[in-house]
């Protein structure tokens, strides 16, 4: 009986010692443990933080205006990107110095109310240098002919708000003809223009209350009927 009790006590002591040594070893080695951390214990494993919520994602580029000429837009005030979002498109353009000649043409064609009250449109908006590229006598002839001016301006308007990833393609315009836009990402061109030089989008994805605007460096030419 004594021998049996002694062996039992020795086995119990050995087990206790083994558990103690194992615990100490795990504290000393830390990250050197042979067992890799489980996915649930690593926030980076699934892109979540310690609270279980997803880590913030960067805003997609398509959500912001893009293009070299965007730097010419005022940083604040009614003519800024933020200021334009609250106004319908013709009003928003009138507050933007980059589009002053376009606003003059729209006013002369009596299209201000039409543009301001039409929901969800895309406007291809020639910047002031686009009009300056047209010979003066040719530009004055178009401005003096209201029917022609209306045809040219409505050729720049597409029903529906097109995001940058929807912009490329052939679209029916408010004028009833078609415009073909090529490109992707932040680079888009339109081949048919008044001067014959392809137009480039120089400041795109500008939001107003009722329109998405793409500013271009040439005036587009309607298809000849």
From TrEMBL:
Name of this protein: Fasciclin domain-containing protein
Family annotation (Gene3D superfamilies): FAS1 domain (2.30.180.10)
Signal peptide residues on this chain, from the entry's feature table: 1-18
SUPFAM superfamilies noted in UniProt: FAS1 domain (SSF82153)
Pfam family name, one: Fasciclin
The keyword Cell inner membrane appears for this protein: no
Regions of compositional bias (Low complexity) in chain numbering: 26-56
Superkingdom, natural source: Bacteria
Residue ranges occupied by any FAS1 domain in the UniProt entry: 86-220
């Amino acid at each position: 009986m004594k021998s049996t009790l002694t062996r039992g006590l020795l086995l119990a002591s050995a087990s206790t010692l083994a558990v103690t040594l194992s615990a100490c070893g795990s504290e000393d080695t830390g990250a050197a443990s042979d067992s890799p951390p489980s996915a649930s214990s690593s926030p980076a494993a699934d892109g979540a933080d310690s609270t279980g919520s997803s880590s913030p994602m960067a805003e997609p580029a398509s959500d912001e205006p893009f293009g070299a000429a965007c730097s010419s837009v005022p940083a604040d005030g009614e003519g800024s990107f933020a200021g334009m979002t609250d106004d319908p498109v013709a009003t928003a353009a009138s507050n933007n110095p980059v589009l002053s000649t376009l606003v003059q043409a729209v006013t002369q064609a009596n299209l201000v109310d039409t543009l301001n009250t039409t929901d969800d449109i895309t406007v291809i908006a020639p910047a002031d240098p686009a009009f300056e590229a047209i010979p003066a006598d040719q530009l004055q002839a178009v401005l003096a002919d209201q029917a022609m001016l209306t045809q040219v301006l409505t050729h720049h308007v597409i029903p529906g708000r097109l995001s940058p990833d929807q912009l490329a393609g052939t679209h029916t315009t408010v004028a009833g003809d078609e415009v073909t836009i090529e490109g992707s990402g932040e680079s888009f061109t339109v081949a048919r223009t008044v001067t014959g030089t392809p137009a480039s989008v120089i400041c795109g994805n500008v939001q107003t209350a009722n329109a998405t605007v793409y500013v271009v460096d040439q005036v587009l030419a309607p298809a000849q009927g």
